[in-house]
Predict the 3D structure of the following.
Amino acid sequence: MLGPERRRSLTARPPGRRRRLTALLGAVCAAVLAATVLTSTASAGAQESQQDRPAASRAAAGKTVGYFTNWGVYQRNYHVKNVETSGSADKLTHINYAFGNVQGGKCAIGDGYADYEKAYTADQSVDGKADTWDQPLRGNFNQLLKLKKLHPDLKILWSFGGWTWSGGFGEAAKNPAAFAESCYNLVNDERWKGLFDGIDIDWEYPNACGLTCDESGPDAFPNLMKALRDKFDGQLVTAAISADASDGGKLEAADYKTAAQYVDWYLPMTYDYFGAWDAQGPTAPHSPLTSYEGIPKDGFNTEATITKLKEMGVPGDKLLYGLGFYGRGWNGVSQAEPGGTATGPAPGTYEQGIEDYKVLKDRCPPTGKVAGTAYAHCGNQWWSYDTPETISAKGDWAAQQGLGGSFFWELSGDTANGELIKAIR
């Protein structure tokens, strides 16, 4: 998951509607009542049957998953309370808490201070109550528990790995059962009992190269996911995966089809297709929905990614499409349209070449659209990012594709009133 502090590179609900029937005649009323009772009974039975099915077989339709980063509580000053005050909590079905580490073949704590030690004052707390010095659980975990009390249907998964910490999965894959045992014990630790509803695996990338290169073989990923599914019985198991749909690319390096039976859904990272790691350009949108004339690389767009995964045998309702709540940009660009040359990455608040949407929308507003996303040329800078308009259109496309929902990286990039998340359909 590409975030300003921990870069991820590709290469590198609606509620049901209640029907109310009004009887006009006594006889009709009786008939309708009888039919309603039968229908309700059948519906309840169907719901029971759905709940009794293994988690991996349930459809992901209508999911809106947002990543919350534990390091966001530092420079970004973004806390769990912001998820509530922005209105984001009302839109979210799931939060992926990023990241836990992978060390010695086991799941491990990522940042203990941010996760469960940091004390919150009353004005910083979700419920307006300050932490005390002697309470057993503080930090983000305690705040997330408070958020779940306000939103009982909200599910939270602990995401492990990410760009920085994916190097540990190779060791974990040597003994998947031991890895799954360690993860289960940590996710369901008594100290934060009731917080997490499952686990999300962010391995960048199985049998391929990310920050480091993995040579565990094409079967390592499905073996790992099977072990997690066996252990996390009744809880959610998901995985963020590559979006590289090029010939011979990362999606072909591991057996994602076999692993699909063990996950509730996949989160293919359909962003960061292009960026200022190619310092001289050509400029290109980092999250194109479709291909376009002049795109720098075939297979690097959302439509190609989803099509390839479906062709590999992954059901559409187990695929969420990804959105970036940030832009990627170049400096030294004179051409307004995509395809221009550059001198390097554009300046960013936390990292060169990347900036939050909430900053870019005013600093460098859109000047055009291409391939279902927006771009902006201001001065000698060129940026691309999604807007409420393009996010809404991507949602229409996803519905036509029968996808299970959407996810985004990450919550702190949105405006204080949740401008982007409220555009998600």
Observations:
- Residues 26-52 form the longest helix (27 residues).
- The domain at 56-324+391-423 is CATH 3.20.20.80 (TIM Barrel).
